[in-house]
Design brief:
48% of the residues lie in helices and 10% in strands. It is mostly helical and 141 residues long.
């Protein structure tokens, strides 16, 4: 079941919402830092959840590259935010894996649970489960 967010909360932009999704990703998995794979996953999420929640995806642009798939400057910005905010750990020098810092994620989740409406948290949890379970277009490395 999809939980529509209604009415749209103008305070929740795409960066806030992607951060909320991050708060519900399993911390015991490794994730790809590949912005194109993340963009592909966000496109699939938008297709699945965007009709009921268009405001969450407002501001995310996708540039289609014929050989690589979609690219989004905003999704790349989000990945940079995760790294600079010390919310993820780069696991090797080749920068091919990200791991969630459990304590940082827990603190972020506690903060968001005090400020974000329950409906939005439920949707974020649902989206986190969807991107982790998608073995074709997902973000799990």
């Amino acid at each position: 079941m999809t939980y529509p967010i209604s009415p749209a909360d103008p305070r929740v932009g795409y960066l806030d919402f992607l951060t909320l999704v991050y708060a519900y990703l399993p911390h015991n998995k490794t994730y790809t830092p590949d912005a194109i794979r993340w963009a592909r996953a966000i496109v699939r999420i938008k297709e699945q959840f965007g009709h009921a929640n268009p405001e969450l995806f407002r501001g995310i642009r996708f540039i289609e590259h014929p050989n690589n798939g979609p690219y989004s400057p905003e999704v790349s910005e989000f990945l940079t935010f995760l790294q600079y905010g010390s919310l993820v750990e780069v696991l090797n020098p080749g920068f091919t894996r990200l791991r969630i810092h459990r304590e940082a994620q827990s603190q972020l989740k506690q903060q968001l649970e005090r400020t974000v409406p329950e409906q939005q948290r439920l949707l974020a949890r649902q989206i986190a489960e969807a991107v982790v379970s998608d073995t074709t277009h997902g973000i799990v490395a």
